[in-house]
Amino acid sequence: MPLRPAALPTVTRHLVSVLLPIALLAIAPLPAAAQEAPRAGDDLPVAEIQAFAEVFERIKRAYVEEVEDEDLLRNAMRGMLSELDPHSAYLDSEEFESLRESTQGEFGGVGIEVGMEEGQLTVITPIDDTPASRAGLRSRDRILRIDDTPTDRLSLQEAVNLMRGEPGTQLRLTILHQDANAPLEVTLTREVIRTRSVKHELLEDGYGYLRVSQFQSRTGAQVDEALESLEQDGPLDGLVLDLRNNPGGVLQAAVDVADAFLDSGLIVYTEGRLADSAMRFSAGRETAAPEVPLVVLINGGSASAAEIVAGALQDQRRGVVMGTQSFGKGSVQQIMSLGNDEGLKLTTALYFTPDGRSIQAQGIEPDVEVIRGRLEVAESSRLDVREADLEGHLDAPDEQRARREVSQRLREDYQLGEALNLLKALNVLSQRRDG
Fold it and tell me: Signal peptide location in the record (predicted)?
């Protein structure tokens, strides 16, 4: 892989029991530009500060219960940040420590990433192979209650704290599916969530499947290893890159994954008010799969770093993006240490695709829209009964059984089946042109 500028900040993810949507995290002290004294014309609003001090004093003197000064000030900081955007937040020592622990790649929880949408706690995506995904939680589900606590008055961080807990303990969530008329309650058992971000397999001879569930520090290297494994028996005729329900993660990992398919050109750039918020990432010549026909699957749960990859491959005309519109999180957060075991998560920039598109609140529009669904055979056709359904049937050899399982997956996952069909069609057209 090409060398990256040494000055780039270290990036990581906030993987607590429930993940927060993050495009870029850099644990660092406050930038120098943010530490400068106010310039002329930037005088502090004296009247508003006096009003703040008066409110503080009246609460101290007249509130029905005694309140500690530290609690009032921390709540003031939380309120200050919560009014900016859904992703900026003050992190107390416990929350900041949780962030540090999350960078180690495992955490206790149920495995969902949440955000605030129209003031309501909303599932961005469940993480693969976690209690949340096994229970059927979906992107855009509204979380109405956590155990017995309504969520309409909770901040995002308060909701996260309630959903955290020791592995083995239970959590009740009252959720409302996007297409449902009534809420339902699900009971989840918290686990230690250990996430491996890349999976791969052959769907058919010559056609590979590469699933990236989130972007961690080693995701780029794992993608290279997966591509090498898929090509052991020869070059691929096509590849499905599955970014559905991928909540994002480490920006550098997204760059590395896009770089695996691009041998030149811009991948993503960021813009913000501070000088160090402006960054540009380009592809290098050393590319794992520069010519493999590619279909990229996205949906409403594809966010942040997943949208960077899809947008780069789309703008560079490197692959066909298929599925439904992505989530639309194109903002960049930095985690800044406050020096007292506390931190500040602040939105500092927006990122843009190579063609200059901002994804923020827009998302990536697929080249080919294919909605979620499955293929089913009408009951009256009697074609839904197979040899495998008959009592006492003989088992097929392992290889044939594996192919049968893949075939069943393609019937149950309509988007994946259509991606494979498109790759085959592209291969046929390519052979005809070459012939």
Answer: 1-34
Residue 281 near residue 250 (C-beta atoms within 8 A): no
Domain CATH number, residue 186? 2.30.42.10
Q: What angle do CA 405, 407, 411 make, to 5 degrees?
A: 115
pLDDT in tens, 354-381: 999 999 989 999 999 999 765 555 554 4
DSSP lists the bridge partners of residue 28 as 336
Q: Where are the alpha helices (DSSP H) in 204-304?
A: 219-230, 251-259
Q: Among all chains, which residue has been given the structure tokens 């209650």?
A: 145
Q: How far is Cα 395 from Cα 404, in angstroms, rounded to an integer?
A: 11
- pLDDT per residue as tens digits for the range 332-344: 888 888 888 899 9
Determine the structural domain holding residue 162 and report its residue range.
114-128+137-194
Distance CA 320, CA 432 (A): 20
Nearest 5°: the CA angle 57, 61, 63 is 105
Looking at the domain assignment, is residue 175 inside a domain?
A: yes
- If you search the block for the tokens 């019937």, which residue do you land on? 411
Catalytic residues: 304, 315, 329
Residue 231 lies in a domain: no
Closest CA to 295 of 123, 391, 421, 157: 421
Torsion of CA 159, 162, 168, 171, to 10 degrees: -70
Contact 20, 87 (CB under 8 A): yes
Tens-digit pLDDT profile for residues 16-46: 223 333 333 333 445 554 455 445 456 789 9
The structure tokens listed for 384 are 């839904």
Q: Is residue 167 part of a domain?
A: yes
Flag whether 105 is in a domain.
no
Residues 6+ positions from 230 with CB-CB distance below 8 Å = 200, 202, 208, 210, 236, 239
Instruction: Quote the DSSP letter at residue 21.
Output: P
Q: How many domains does the chain have?
A: 1
DSSP annotation string for 136-187: T--TT-EEEEETTEESTT--HHHHHHHH---TT-EEEEEEE-TT-SS-EEEE
